[in-house]
Design a protein that fits this description.
The protein is an alpha/beta fold and about 375 residues long. It is built from 13 helices and ten strands. It has helices spanning about 1-10, 70-80, 105-110, 150-165, 175-185, 210-230, 240-245, 260-265, 275-280, 290-295, 315-320, 340-345, 345-365, and strands at about 35-40, 40-50, 55-60, 85, 115-125, 130-135, 170-175, 190-200, 305-310, 330-335. The protein is globular, with a radius of gyration of 19 Å. The chain starts with a helix and ends in a 9-residue tail after the last helix.
């Protein structure tokens, strides 16, 4: 429970008075042009780099950040010859933020038509050995459009309309891994596989909260209070120095926390509507979970996983236990790295992603596939 409350507090400190500004023409983190994809009357910011003829890769960010968080991955993969795309999910970064409860928000909600609950799902545990059987509530308790099914739909439409190639490799960090896995489950023909940089087990999910029958009413009361009254509480706290302190919690390699990182993560959180989405996301105690997704994953879509062993938020044994899933081909952990290996240790992560892509090509070639159909 203490770690849950700490997570909520750390996230809220980002919130300050709302200002209005648009994305710069060029990202200060990547030197890539900021481009926009029109999706269901919403504007989705993305960046791209590398040769258009290269194998396509789509990077999906984690919680409360944006595509600039991939600054070292974009450059590293592009330099290796990949055609790299990085997207701001709906509600994040410089992408549109439709007002929750509005007609336009309802129109893009990917939960429409989805089941409400999955019964008796086997989930992992922090020790990596025991299994918990839980019902999984799939739908956002506030009926928000900012959910994994919406983001899955966005990722697939972006793949079809912007990347416009088959065999796209999806790469995700943290909570972005849920969106990526769901995208492949929903539209497997678009993708070659997924590389997860620190999977996220979502400790605010009802199925993950210890003694949830007792704890969830308290958590939900706090969530509601913060949605309704929380904005003013943090108005004075979002300064570069405060954000830098927050980042020291998940980052083990603290030299990676520089002024550019702080700026590109903080600035979009000051845009009108961003705070509502942060509060709403912290109320998202439902949706898919990694073990459930990997259990229903197409076995011909490989998944590789890497993580930092010094991540304070991710239990290493639970990550390692994902190796038992048929689709998971490799799990590797690195000492001295925290929750964001792609930004803390790109010299480890970029080669890992490239090795994964090479493995996909080698496997398909051995199976007699036309390699041109992959890219």
């Amino acid at each position: 429970m203490q770690s849950i409350l700490l997570c909520i507090l750390c996230c809220f400190i980002f919130l300050v008075e709302v200002i209005s500004f648009s994305a710069p023409d060029v990202s200060p983190a990547t030197n890539c042009k900021n481009e926009f994809f029109s999706w269901k009357q919403q504007q989705i910011r993305y960046q791209q780099s590398g040769p258009p003829s290269g194998p396509p890769v789509l990077l999906v960010h984690g919680l409360f950040v944006n595509s600039d968080h991939w600054r070292k991955t974009i450059q590293g993969l592009a330099d290796a010859g990949c055609h790299v795309f990085a997207i701001d999910l709906l509600g994040y970064g410089y992408s549109s933020k439709p007002k929750i409860g509005s007609a336009e928000a309802e129109a893009v909600n990917g939960e429409n038509g989805r089941p409400d609950v999955l019964k008796s799902v086997a989930l992992g545990s922090a020790d990596g050995r025991s299994t918990r059987i839980k019902d999984i509530d799939l739908k956002h308790p506030t009926k928000s459009p900012f959910n994994f099914f919406t983001w899955s739909s966005l990722i697939s439409d972006f793949t079809k309309e912007v990347i416009a190639k088959n065999g796209v490799c999806l790469v995700a960090n943290s909570i972005g891994s849920i969106s990526v896995l769901q995208a492949i489950i929903d539209n497997p023909s678009l993708y070659s596989g997924a590389c997860l940089v620190t999977p996220n087990f979502r400790e605010l999910h009802k199925a993950e909260v210890p003694l949830s029958d007792l704890a969830m009413p308290v958590i939900q009361t706090v969530q509601k209070l913060l949605r309704e009254k929380g904005q003013g509480l943090f108005d004075a706290l979002a300064t570069p120095s405060t954000v830098e302190q927050i980042l020291k919690e998940p980052y083990k390699v603290q030299d990676a926390i520089d002024d550019t990182l702080v700026k590109v993560l903080l600035d979009p959180l000051l845009i009108e509507g961003a705070s509502d989405i942060v509060f709403d996301t912290l109320s998202y105690s439902a949706g898919p979970l990694p073990e459930q997704q990997l259990s229903q994953f197409p076995e011909d879509k490989p998944v590789w996983i890497c993580y930092g062993k010094d991540d304070p938020w991710t239990p290493p044994a639970r990550v390692e236990a994902l190796m038992s899933k048929p689709c998971v081909g490799k799990v590797i952990g690195w000492d001295g790295v925290g929750h964001c290996p792609h930004d803390e240790a790109p010299e480890l992560v970029n080669p890992f992603i490239l090795e994964f892509m090479e493995e996909i090509v080698a496997t398909k070639k051995s199976q007699g596939f036309n390699l041109l159909s992959l890219f």
